[in-house]
Structures are given as C-alpha cells and as structure tokens.
Amino acid sequence: MRRLNIGYFIKEGFSSIFSHGLMSFAAVCMIVACLIIMGSFSLLAVNVDNMLSQLEEENEFLAFVDEDYTDDQIRALMDQVRALDNVGSDPGSVTFVSREQAKRDYLKGHESDGLYANIPDEVFRDRLSIHVKDLERFTETVDAVDGLPGVVNHRAAGEVAEGFVAVRNAVTALAYVLIGILAAVSLFIISNTTRLAAFARREEIAIMKMCGATDGFVRWPFIVEGLILGVMGALVAFFLQWAVYAAVSRALVEGGAADLFGLMNFSDLWKRVLAVFMLSGSVIGALGSSFAIRKFLQV
Amino acid sequence: MIRLIDVHKEYDNGTKALKGINLRIEDGEFVFLVGPSGSGKSTIIKLLTGEIVASQGRVIVNGYNLNNIRRWQIPHMRRTLGIIFQDFRLIEKKTVQGNLEFAMRTVGASGREMRKRIPYVLDLVGLNDKADAYPNEMSGGEQQRVAIARALVNNPRMIIADEPTGNLDPKRSLEIMTLLERINAMGTTMLVVTHERDLVNRFSKRVVAIKDGEMIRDGQGGYYRA
Fold first, then answer.
1. 20 to 30 A from B108, CA-CA: which of A139, A254, B2, B150?
2. What backbone phi and psi angles, to 5 degrees, belong to B89?
3. Band of residue A114 on the pLDDT scale cut at 50, 70, 90
4. Do A190 and A279 share a domain, yes or no?
C-alpha cells in the first residue's frame, strides 16, 4: 500500500462518516451499548473469579482423626492426604490440630462468656485442617479424604464452595453467550452502516472499478470507516464503563455490601478493559465493513 | 488489440445475446460497432470490460485472455482501457479536476503525475479553463468531454465509447466524434458503439454491424441499413 493511498483511505473514511452522520452516530451508539453490556458481564465474571480465587486461598475443611491413632499414624495419614493432587505436598496444605489446640481456638471468640469456660478437652477431637487447590473438586476431595483409614468424620462447607463455582461458571457462560450475541448485533449494525455508505457511493465504486481500481483500493476506505466507528465506540464505551463500575463500587461500599462482594479496583483493570474494548471495536468495525462492501465489488 | 473468436453468450435467464461472434480489432484502429437495440452491443462491451464472461469462445483484450483471467488481474486489464458512457457518469460533487484526480488515484498515480497529466488531457479535450467547474455547471457536450478526459487520463491503449453522443445534439455529437477521431489519430485504439447513422456515414471508418447476436457486416465506411 502506498503512502499516498493510506492518507487517501483515512481521508475518505472520515468524510464518509460525516456524509451519513446519523447512521454513523447510531452505529457508534450500538457499539457503545454492546461493549458496555459485554464489558459489564465480563467485569462481573472477573470479579466473581477473583473472589473465588481468594476463597480458594483460604478454603479448608476439617477431617477428624481416629482417637486411637498414634502420632506416627497421624503423620502417615497427613502424608496420605498430601498425596491427593487437589491438596498438594506443601507442608501448609495439611495441618494437625490437637483437641487442646482446637479448644483454645474455639474459646478465643468466647472469652467473656463463662458458659464455655469449663468445657472438657474431650468434647473436641484431633483433626486435620486441609486446604484444597481447586474448589470445583471440593466434594471429590472431601470424599477422598473421608475414605482414608483413620479419618472418622469431616466438617466441610461444600455447598458454599460449589455454589460459588456454579455462580462463576454461570456468569462466565452468560458473558460468553452475551459477547457472541452482542458482537453479532454490532457486526450487523456496522455492516448496515457501511452498506448504506457503499450504496450511496455505488456509482463512484463502479467508476473506480471501470478505471482499474483493485478491490482493495475500493474496500479500504470503508474498512477505515468501520475501524474509526469501532474505535470511537470503544473509547466512549470505556469511559462510560469506568463511570458505571465506579458507581456500582461506590454503591456497594455505601450499602455496606463491600465485605460480602467487594469489587476489584478499576485501576487494576483499566488496561485490560481498554485493550479488549479497542480490539473488539476495531475487529467488529473492520469485519462489518468488509462483509458489507463485498456485494458492491462485483462490478 | 481485441480478438473475439466464436464467442457465444447466454444469460442465466436463457437469453442468447451473442451467437458465434468473430471480431479482430488491431491496435490503432477506429471501429464503429452498430446495431439495433437488443442486438448484443452492450454484451460485447461487458465482455470486453470483464464484467461478464463468455459462455463459449475466446475473448482477448490487450493481451489478456478474459476466459481464464484471474480476479486480481481484471483491474490491470481495465487500466489498458478507457471507457466512456452515454450518461457521462461523472461524480457530481467533484470538480472536473477532482474527477480526473479520482480516476488517476484509483490506479495509484502520484500527485506529481496528476499535476503533469491532467492539464495536458484537459487541453486535449478543450477544457483547460474548466478545471474548477462542477459537472452540473457544464453543458452535456462539455460533460462528455470531461468523461473523455477521464478515459484518457490514465493513458489507455484503447477507448471503448458506449453511445458517447446518445445524449447530445447533432452539433455537439459531431464535435465529440471529431475529438475521438483526433485521439485515435494520436495512436489510441477506438471502439465506438453508436446508433447515429449520420455520424457513422460522415466518418469513413470501419463499421461492424450486429443483429440478434450475430455479426452481419464488417467493412469500411457506411452504415448498415437493414
């Protein structure tokens, strides 16, 4: 592509946008709407995923050990638990907690309550505190530990962990479906905008082709137009998304729900959001234009 | 150079537009292609410009075999042609200069080439004082001169003029045909499709007549009077 042509394509792309301004405006609005919906669901998915990761870091369950087990047997049992691939060989992944320690930990929250002061150690049991790596395999891991000789019982909030996984999977799936649908809608809108521009200029296109213009020469100004619309939409959507995210974040803090569902800082996310928006906007714009112009090149 | 060898064309709706046309036009010739409406003239033009392909037979234009030409080669073939239409097909929102620049830009000409070539071509068609005029400010004859200038601006080997005087009065038609003859004298091959019997008779050129998709005459001077 010659330098002269690049300047020409950009100039033609811009002038085409303004020659049918209303349709261009509609296309940008559609892209903005699609990107914001897409972005919101993606950000929700990212935040749920982030929460889940934090949960995974802290997540543990308790396996109660047979009271007749000796220290050596308990150590052997711990090695067996560490051998499970969802637990890992990290020494911190399995910790032994004696009944005395368990009692002390329990009483920490109830120092002022005399009712608990005289609880005998025997009420508590020796236990293993076990961290899992992947919450999706929580129940499977609990069952595996439960099946080991020397483990007599367990205490695990499997429903909560799996509930989070289910929410994450649902949000991610929904985000993907929405991204697909909205990308198709955006493509359709951009494609129609370009088709309108191409229809208005069909005579020019026919003249160009008769003069010996290549398909690329005819196509590029329209692709540039689509790209510009896509990038404009992406930029507007980015700033709106920022505002929406900040507002939701603030509302969660003010509503006291931040502890339950605290959003990640946008400053940690903005580069990724901007990159994804710009890429999506550009691809949607360029592809939509390419599809639309094909028919007009058959001269 | 044009060669049509036993060319047949049947459209998708079953219409047989051409039935075994043989035609050879050498470089530098001036040829009138005449015939009544529906005789197949437009089909020949479309075949020569690569808009359609022959159903049977061979079509060769300026060294390009259009039977097996690749899509990317068609623009290069078209650059060897200058095409003039009956309805001028100028871009109304561009000046005369703009229309010519548009044609030159499509083939990748530089600004320097445009500055050199456009005044020369405008001078050739007698419009050197109209570079900044818009088509709708000009007469039909002047607009057709702009169309001729546009066809010439990329220095084609051949000009194909499809009813170039169809929208003009007799005086302007004569001027346009004289201009085309002058351009031909400078070495550009000329194929002119026309209905204008008086014009054809006035210029003693080779006349190819077709009727119902068949060639019925190919000879020097005079109009087919069927």
1. B2
2. 50, 55
3. low
4. yes
| A203 touching B (Cβ < 8 Å) | yes
Mutate to test the interface with A, among B92, B106, B107 (most CBs of A within 10 A): B106
Give the 3-state secondary structure of residue A6.
Answer: helix
B73 contacts in chain A (CB < 8 Å): none
Q: Does A214 touch chain B (CB under 8 A)?
A: yes
Q: Do A5 and B108 touch (CB under 8 A)?
A: yes
Helix axis angle for A158-200 and A202-211, nearest 10°, is 70
Per-residue confidence (pLDDT) for residue A161, from 0 to 100: 67
φ, ψ (nearest 5 deg) of residue A97 = -120, 120
Q: For residues A44 and A176, state if they share a domain.
A: yes
Interface ipTM: 0.84
- Check CB contact under 8 Å for A2 and B108: yes
C-beta atoms of B79 and A203 within 8 A:
no
- Does the beta carbon of A74 lie under 8 angstroms from any beta carbon of chain B? no
* Residue B3 · residue B60 · CB < 8 Å: yes
Neighbours of A226 (CB within 10 A): 33
- Determine the average pLDDT of the residues in A232-256: 90
Q: Between residues A57 and A272, which one has the greater pLDDT?
A: A272
Task: Identify the CATH number of the domain in which residue A91 sits.
Answer: 3.30.70.3040
Closest chain A residue by Cα to residue B72: A214
Position of tokens 């890429």? A279
Choose the most confident range, by mean pLDDT, from A64-68, A271-275, B219-223: A271-275
Q: Which of A8, A207, A212 lies closest to B79 in CB terms? A: A212
pLDDT the model gives residue A1: 45
pLDDT at B198: 83
| Tally of domains within chain A | 2
Same domain, yes or no, for A91 and A208?
Answer: no
Both A94 and A25 in one domain: the answer is: no
Token pair listed for B133: 């005029």
The number of C-beta contacts closer than 8 angstroms across A and B is 52
Token readout for A108 is 């920490």
**Yes or no: domain B1-80+156-226 corresponds to CATH 3.40.50.720:** no
Residue A82 contacts B where some CB pair is shorter than 8 Å: no
Domain range for residue A17? Answer: 3-54+162-297
pLDDT tens-digit readout, A160-207 = 667 777 777 887 788 788 778 877 887 887 788 778 777 877 888 888
Q: Is A210 on the interface with B (CB under 8 A)?
A: yes
What pLDDT score does A113 carry?
63
